[in-house]
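Predict fold of Transcriptional regulator; 115 aa.
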Amino acid sequence: MKMDIAQLDASAEQAAELLSALANKNRLMILCNLLNQEMAVQPLADAVGMSQSALSQQLAKLRLARLVSTRRQGKEIYYRVASSEVEEILQTLYGLYCRPAAPDVASRAVAALDA
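Predicted 3D structure, encoded as tokens:
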């Protein structure tokens, strides 16, 4: 795939902001849990192993970045992934890191940088 560097330059800031939001393990796991379903706060907190207050802080950052959206039903607030870009990136990460016998891509990348 040939990259159009001028086009990339025009979008680099936006891409960097998206990747920055994904560069936190907790936020990444929150988004992974929301990839195929919307979830209320407490079930999501249980799924990612975070306290409700810690989760709320991370969800606020994700909302500010417009990566998740909400729906209120009674007293419950349901969250879901709001960005098709995030969905594509998460699916790519899953394919790279979660498939059976996935190669240790991160270790190879670090080794290449150290060489």
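Strands lie at 39-40, 68-73, 76-81.
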